[in-house]
Design brief:
- There is one protein chain.
- The chain has helices at about 5-20, 365-385, 400-425, 430-460, 465-495, 500-530, and strands spanning about 30-35, 40-50, 55-60, 65-70, 80, 85-90, 100-105, 110, 115-125, 135-140, 145-150, 155-160, 160-170, 180-185, 190-200, 205-215, 220-225, 235-240, 240-245, 245-250, 255-265, 270-275, 285, 290-295, 305-315, 315-320, 325-330, 335-345, 355-360.
- The chain is α+β, with helices and mostly antiparallel strands and about 525 residues long.
- The protein folds into 3 domains: about 5-185, Immunoglobulin-like (Sandwich), CATH 2.60.40; about 190-360, tricorn interacting facor f3 domain (Immunoglobulin-like, Sandwich); about 400-530, Four Helix Bundle (Hemerythrin (Met), subunit A) (Up-down Bundle), CATH 1.20.120.
- Strands 19-18-22-16-15-25-28-27 form an 8-stranded mixed sheet. The protein has a 7-stranded mixed sheet with strand order 4-7-2-1-10-13-12, with helices on one face.
- A hairpin with a 4-residue loop joins strand 15 (about 190-200) and strand 16 (about 205-215).
- The N and C termini lie far apart (about 70 Å).
Length: about 525
């Protein structure tokens, strides 16, 4: 059973245990449970009778923009289709069974700052292709007190819980009645995570979690509670100004962080939490020189972007699953592997496990460069001490903008040569070797291209008369960067086994000429800038 199935099963059990809705035994029925969590996500749980080999559950089309994710315990991979009036989730099913679906929405709870209340709007029932009318029941759970409810037959049975039922309901109608609940809450804060960065050092079991969050609804927030791995330690919370107050419960894994100042509606902030995790934590695990990192969400909400940086010290990565977005080495014994995911939510986070096979490096070899540097410093220091009276230290000179520009241009040459050597030597067909080197070359090209463009723009401020040459240079650099990145796009199908060696060789023959042209254009543009400034 995979992590997604386990998570969904736990979610369904939690909803059913708290629902208190009993179906009509021996008869077809449908029920819907709507629950608003403490951060504004809305979970909709549907139980409907199967309509055959495929059960189609429909929602009004206007909600597709708010859809975060969906899952079913009956089908590991339900399908999504968008039509003219509705969008559908299609689930493999068997006749006579009850089908279960959980959908997650965001942005359907709104905050009224003048009235200081929330409003939930959600479809009353699922739309299914069933001819006869069947019993239908609904329960809505909000974290507060309801002041206005529609339709009228929804009754508040306890604080924040409303329920209602209809003995016979036609669920095939496309025009669905809307449930509207206005409520107040002292606990609900609609918090949006705009970006997450997780930095993991697996051998040291160190982690850093950087969050950018925004307050989209509710009263001012003076603190926030995040979930970390249980029994974490050495916890430190910071914002953009420095360390801030935090308290951690090792048994639950919850860390309560107090903001430097209360976060108001519409405001955003940055948080960084550094911590170490225990040996038995499943967030980082080792087996047969393979390290597995399981990213996690510290809040039960979504993150628009999620970056994972894995830093290996004293080890060389040999292979990985999935393919990273970036890989670069930092001499002598440090490698960084970067993954970027978009739209992470409580359901799909369980599918983002990262596996890296590595080869340990010898400790002696990694310390030799440092010993050599120390020895050189010692020798230079002793010579300086002898002649200190005769030496006058010259002031450090800042490099001229043109020199910085030419230096950065020079750094693109090893990128070009490295990629050319990889292709012409035939080592690009060695999958393990090629994969690592292509990612490293791509990262180097991106880094030096950005620096060169920055230097060109700085030079333009002082030398506007060569604007044409500098613009041509920037365009040439961007073209070269894209050409380098295309090497990965061309080679990846071969690395994944979907392209033959012969086909890749044919593509690389054409590509090599393209790469050479783009590199020569950069050199010509650099030379044109240099000549204009002579």
């Amino acid at each position: 059973m995979n992590q997604r199935t386990i998570l969904l099963s736990i979610l369904l059990i939690a909803i059913l245990v708290t629902a208190g809705l009993n179906p009509v035994l021996g008869k077809q029925y449908s029920k819907r449970i709507v629950e608003v969590n403490a951060l504004g996500l809305v979970y909709i749980y549907d139980e409907v009778p199967s309509t055959g080999g495929k059960t189609v559950i429909q929602f009004p089309k206007n909600l597709v923009k708010n859809l975060v994710n969906y899952a079913s315990t009956d089908d590991p991979e339900p399908e999504l289709e968008v039509g003219n009036r509705t969008f559908s989730i299609i689930i493999d099913s068997k006749p006579g069974q009850t089908v279960h679906l959980v959908t997650v929405f965001r942005g359907i709870v709104s905050w009224n700052p003048s009235q200081r209340n929330f409003e939930l709007k959600v479809p009353l029932n699922p739309i299914i292709s069933i001819k006869e009318k069947i019993p239908f029941s609904i329960e809505v759970k909000v974290p507060g007190n309801a002041s206005s409810v529609s339709p009228a037959y929804l009754k508040q049975v306890s604080t924040g819980i409303l329920s209602g039922s209809i003995d016979e309901m036609d669920l095939s109608k496309k025009d669905v009645e809307e449930v509207s609940v206005t409520f107040t809450s002292q606990t609900l804060r609609i918090i949006d995570i705009t970006s997450t960065k997780l930095i993991a050092e697996p051998f040291e079991r160190k982690m850093e979690l950087d969050l950018k969050i925004q307050h989209l609804g509710g009263e001012d927030a003076s603190r926030i509670t995040l979930r970390l791995p249980i029994n974490s330690y050495n916890i430190e919370a910071r914002d953009h100004l420095g360390k801030i107050s935090s308290s951690y419960d090792a048994e639950t894994g919850q860390v309560r962080i107090t903001f430097r100042q209360a976060l108001k509606f519409g405001e955003g902030t940055y948080l960084s939490i550094r911590f170490k995790i225990p040996e038995n934590s499943s967030i980082i695990s080792f087996k047969d020189e393979i390290v597995t990192i399981n990213p996690f969400l510290p809040l039960n909400t979504t993150s628009w972007s999620y970056e994972v940086q894995i830093i290996l010290r004293g080890a060389e990565p040999e292979s990985w699953t999935p393919e990273p977005d970036e890989f670069y080495r930092q001499y002598p014994d440090k490698s960084t592997i970067v993954y970027r995911f978009s739209h992470i939510d409580p359901i799909n986070i369980g599918e983002r496990a990262i596996n890296i096979k590595y080869k340990p490096l010898f400790a002696v070899s990694t310390t030799l460069p440092y010993l050599a540097i120390i020895a050189i410093i010692g020798i230079v220091g002793s010579i300086t001490a002898v002649y200190v009276k005769e030496i006058r230290i010259a002031p450090r000179r800042e490099k001229r903008p043109i020199q910085r520009l030419l230096d950065e241009g020079g750094f693109l040459t090893p990128v070009y040569q490295g990629l050319t050597e990889l292709i012409t030597s035939g080592r690009i067909f060695e999958r393990g070797y090629s994969r690592k080197n292509l990612l490293e070359i791509r990262s180097n090209a991106r880094r030096h291209a950005e620096k060169l463009v920055k230097s060109a723009r700085e030079l333009l401020k002082t030398q506007p008369e060569i604007s044409k040459e500098l613009i041509d240079l920037e365009n040439a650099v961007r073209e070269f960067q894209k050409a380098v990145e295309r090497a990965w796009d061309i080679t990846y199908p071969y690395l994944s086994g979907s392209l033959s060696k012969k086909k890749l060789s044919e593509r690389l023959d054409k590509y090599h000429d393209e790469l050479k042209r783009s590199y020569n254009r950069v050199i010509d543009c650099l030379e044109a800038v240099r000549k204009r400034l002579e």
